[in-house]
Amino acid sequence: MADPGSGPVTISAVQQLVKRKDEVEAQIKAYYELLENQKGVGMDGPLVDAEGFPRDDIDLYKVRTARHNIICLQNDHKALMKQVEEALHQLHAQEKEKHGRDEAEGVADTMSQDQNLPQAFAKVNAVTPGSPASISGLQVDDEIVEFGSVNVNNFQNLQNIATVVQHSEGRPLSVTVLRGGKKVHVGLTPKRWAGKGLLG
User: Which UniProt keywords apply (predicted)?
Assistant: First the structure.
């Protein structure tokens, strides 16, 4: 029989133990029924008559064997119950440990994704409704990673963006932003509109 102490416990190993326990319980029950059928002698009914002679109304051999087997089986049962309990504890501990590992891996994945995300050099703090920026899908709090040819490596100040915008009037610009921890590409075409500037 599998010893729950060796290696990780599986659900099927626990089921095996429970099955074994059920079998032992069934055997104990059968022996008790046998004792009941022997004039209800049970586990401690007398095996001798009033004069001290072996009783002749019961099968003494059967009664002795049944009593002996019940005692042995009860010991087995106790040991099995202990094994089942330990196995269940281990199974629970393994599940807890696995859950902890899964959570740690999830955190590590998120962190490695964060490390893979490019650096932003500007943040959108306002988008005027109806403006070219608004129509392109740019949103407040988007962090700009690339704006046409401008990126974190060559960005010095907002004048860089203004220059790109002026040179790209009427032409679509590729803009990459970070939104909610993900990279999003926006196609933005600077053009004249009712409001100020070419973007809004």
Answer: Chaperone, Coiled coil
In a shared domain, residues 139 and 81:
no
Domain end, chosen from 111, 139, 154, is at 111
How would you write the pLDDT of the chain (200 residues) with one tens digit per residue?
Answer: 445 445 678 889 889 999 999 999 999 999 999 999 999 999 999 999 999 999 999 999 999 999 999 999 999 999 999 999 999 999 888 888 888 888 888 777 766 666 677 788 888 888 888 888 888 888 888 888 888 888 888 888 878 888 888 888 888 888 888 888 888 888 888 888 777 777 76
Chain centroid, CA 90 distance in Å: 17
**Prediction pTM value:** 0.48
Helices (H), the chain: 11-37, 60-116, 132-136, 158-167
Say if residue 57 is in the same domain as residue 97.
Answer: yes
Total domains in the fold of the chain = 2
